[in-house]
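Re: the 256-residue chain
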Amino acid sequence: MDKHPFDSMEFSELSAEAVDRIEQRVRHYAAVLGPPPRNMIRLPHTLRIAVAACLTLLVMSVAVLQVSANSLPDDTLYPLKRAMEDVRLEYSSDKPTYESELAQTRIDEFEHMLEQGKIYPQLLEDSNRHMQHILDETDDHLTLERVARLGLYQAELIKQLVVQSNHKQQEDLLRIGQKTADIQSQVGQEVTPPTPPSATVVIEGPVEAIGPDFVVIYGIKIQLDPAGINLGDTLVVEGSIDLRSNTFIVTSTDEP
């Protein structure tokens, strides 16, 4: 039988002083650490993994919520942001104050989108909704003052944007602007609703049809007094298109 390598090694015994020093150190560490807990429960390995996974998910969820707080309508996390706002509003002890914060948030989001060249009228409509809820729920002077300031700012924002928007956006902004003006009147602020921009148009062509108060040129119905105008006459008509009524308003007529 082969001898173990340790069999040929010689070990010297520790001196009594060395043993004493080791014992003192062990007692010192034990005093620092304290006695082990009597009722300590050691979780099974599988359960420890599950707990660790839950904690990881919790940390990740908090991180996602923090990121979603700065999201915008075209971001993936934006629906989560709005859902969390709804939950917080539901359990808020001061709904009017929180809704004023939400109205400000919607206006801020609208301006951030505007910086990207995008117009989202729905955000201003949501702002109106929050402001109207505040008026329905409180008569607190300071809160109403904040609504007045928000409404004035939003009304001016809409007026400046109407001329820069496409037809559909103009319709939305005009409707929202009218509601903003109504809200302002409820807090004692008179605001003139936005008006659609007028586009000057010159039409020259033959009269294709004549009605009691209009003529038709190139299929366009033009409101004017047709007295003295005959079918086939060539007219030069200058005017503007009213986007709200979708009519052509004549400012002058002439024959070439």
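Residues 92-186 form one domain.
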